[in-house]
Amino acid sequence: MPPLLEIRDLMTVFDTTRGRIKAVDGVSLDINSGETLGIVGESGCGKTMLSLSIMRLIPGNGKIIHGEILFSGIDLLKLSEEEMRARRGSEISMIFQEPMTSLNPVFRVGEQIAEAIRLHQNLPAKQAMELSVELLREVGIPEPQKRARDYPHNLSGGMRQRVMIAMAMSCHPRLLLADEPTTALDVTIQAQILELISELKQKNNMAVVLITHDLGVIAQAAEKVAVMYAGKIVELADVETLFAKPMHPYTQGLLESVPARCFDSMGGENYLKVIPGSVPDLYDVSQGCRFYERCSYAMEECNRSEPPLLEIDPGHFVLCHKYGEGKNN
Ligand code: SF4
């Protein structure tokens, strides 16, 4: 069965007075129904722009200049704005870090979910409201009938995120884009929200793209992981392989900076490592590897030419000259 979503050589750029920025640069990915793909990387690596590109909601002067986004075999980039609008919120939904950016503070949450339902399904108001309460129940909100009458500010951060998820699920999307959905929440609530997304994914055979800077979230919720750096995917693998055998120096650095890795098998404490430097200014990217300035394995060749994305093992892709032909791994 073909993947639900196939992204091919996608390029999203921003033209500014200082020049052109390639925020998403030649990204290719597949996602199957019932699968969670985690996209991880530091701020500014392009992960949010990738999800906004899938939704065709690129802000400001950004535009997609190359590639395909095939959703059930149909290229979303070829749809009219009206056709695309019909897919947003029905077949493809998105949730964000801060639910208040999507919830209207002056309307009760039940009304807002009912409104989302009515937007895509031709239902009478009473029926939409009943469905809204049902959805609140489904996302684990206690006393949903009562909570439906609350305003967003009456609810805790975790409850607001559940409302946001209820709204996103209101039309049974086949693809859910979740951009840092748990970053603003404390650890216990974070685990509950990830569990909820996972349950809804299984129940609805939905595909999930989970965007995060947190490898702990990836370990808990994703089956496949794409590591992004400066607009490019630098490593792609299933989650077990990525954690057991990270190959790109950037992925290795990310994993070494996770607190859980500070303790070795003998119980001794290691020092947390940090990746030196920061993500390059995308105006300044050279023709070579974008991680060159921060990489302790950098070779002369790395500054001269961009590495190709190589399949090192089946399903494990790495963008690094270290693994090029004739190189010692
Ligand atoms: Fe480091 Fe070179 Fe690999 Fe880039 S291509 S990550 S600089 S070894």
Polypeptide structure, described:
- The protein is built from 11 helices and 12 strands.
- A hairpin with a 2-residue loop joins strand 1 (5-16) and strand 2.
- It is globular and about 65 Å long.
- Among the domains are: 106-167, no CATH class; 246-323, no CATH class.
- With 329 residues, the protein is α/β, with parallel strands linked by helices.
- An 8-stranded mixed beta sheet has the order 6-7-8-3-9-10-12-11, with helices on both faces.
- It starts with a strand and ends in a 10-residue tail after the last strand.
- 31% of the residues lie in helices and 24% in strands.
- Residues 261-268 have low confidence and may be disordered.
- The structure holds iron/sulfur cluster.
- The site of iron/sulfur cluster has 13 residues, from loops.
Radius of gyration: 21 Å
User: What small molecules accompany the polymer chains?
Assistant: iron/sulfur cluster
Oligomer: single chain
Strand residue content: 15-25%
* Structural class computed from helices and strand pairing: alpha/beta
From the spread of the alpha carbons, the general shape counts as globular
Distance between the termini: 34 Å
What is the mean predicted local confidence, pLDDT? 90
Lateral arrangement of strands in the main beta sheet: 6-7-8-3-9-10-12-11
Characterize the largest beta sheet: strand count, sense, and whether it forms a barrel: 8 strands, mixed
Percentage of helical residues?
25-40%
Order of helices and strands: EEEHEEHEHHHHEHEHEEHHHEE
